[in-house]
Amino acid sequence: MFRIQAEIFNCLAGLKSLLGRGLILSLIWMLGAAQASAQVPTFTQEFTPATINTGQNSTIRFTFTNPAATGGVSSLNLPGTLPAGLTVSGAGTTTCAGTSPGNVNAPTGGTTYQVSAFGFDFGTFNVLDAGESCIAEIPVVANAVGTVTSTSGDLTYSSTSQGNSQNAGTATGTLTVAGPLIGAPYLTREFLTDPIAVSAGSVQVRYSIQSGQRSATTTNITLSDNITNTVALAGAMSAGSNTCGGSFSVTGGNTFVLTGASLAPEASCSFVGTVDISGVAAGDYAGSTGPATGDVSGATVTSNLAYSTIQILQDAAPSMTMSFTDTAAGSATTGTITFTNLAANALTNGEFTIPVSPPLPNSTTITFPATPCGPG
């Protein structure tokens, strides 16, 4: 860039006697104006809140800005890896958009992310027009004490003045993670069968709460957990056993709710619910609960967020083999068909068709056992 500028100024100096000083100054001013309006996006990274306790959530916010007076930024692409001690705890979002909405690819439970938005430099199809800003947010959970420094990958972009595949560098943010909340209850959540096949129909989920008090009772403990935030398309739910007291129920068809529970000093309790997974797609699922809250001597205490995972498997398809015993023409033969269930659960409504080619003679008789594979 500087070599090109130097060559331009040398050319201008060579033309001075031919074009005159006034025109030279005008050309210099135009060159400076073009430099000033170059669409080089700036971006920042920050944590909100910037100080949390272990087990709690914070949100990484990237803010992208086009500071130019004219011209647009037509694409943005930002990859990155979270530092040790942080894990993605939920779905990312972005307001950046071009010809279509932008995208945040940050798998829950993972440590990588990619923010992208694509458009083109025409009309209102830029991702960032002159002077505009947009944001991308990724929720994370902290699992280690200390000061965590997060540095993104390089932001690449395309703009009106600079063309494609330009590099705007990295951005850094800092999160302070303190130890567990003193005196607050500690919450865990686990799926009792993991992995589990879709055909199992349902899975039990157990919540456990440990008191954080040595001498005081924690009362009015409350927790609300929308299970579909972790397992999308989860079906009917039911509340089961509860050793925490109070009321344990299901509201809205997708949320387990505990209210009015209590814990003696240093005690623990648990409650178990059942979730229908028959309509859930096979895959890996992960997410966090909200916090549990309670009262201790008139003050409110707030637990951590309980993070858990579950792997839901698609049942394996059954297999079938067929064989015949050798025999002379016109004599009977025995065919053996073996139908095997390869899944971990019982198979129902099994059926199969055997095409015969060429067709058997009309006088052929086939005899099947009454119940070759059980009733049916």
- For the termini, the CA-CA separation is 80 Å
Structural class: mainly beta
Q: Determine the number of helices (DSSP H or I, runs of at least 4 residues).
A: 2
Poorly predicted residue ranges: 1-37
Our estimate of the beta-strand percent is 35-45%
Largest sheet data: 5 strands, antiparallel
Based on DSSP secondary structure assignment, what is the total number of beta strands?
Answer: 27
Helicity range? under 10%
**Integer average pLDDT:** 83
| Radius of gyration computed on alpha carbons | 33 Å
Shape: flat
Describe this structure as you would to a colleague.
This protein is mainly beta and 376 residues long. Helix content is 9%, strand content 43%. It contains two helices and 27 strands. It has helices at 2-19, 21-36; strands at 42-48, 51-53, 57-65, 73-81, 86-88, 93-94, 103-105, 112-118, 133-142, 146-151, 156-159, 163-167, 172-178, 186-191, 196-197, 202-210, 218-226, 237-242, 247-251, 255-263, 268-276, 283-288, 293-296, 299-302, 307-313, 319-324, 335-340. Strands 1, 3, 5, 6 and 9 form a five-stranded antiparallel β-sheet that branches. The chain is flat and about 90 Å long. The N and C termini lie far apart (80 Å). The model is unreliable at 1-37 (pLDDT under 50).
What would the keywords be for this entry?
376 residues; mainly beta; five-stranded antiparallel β-sheet; 27 strands
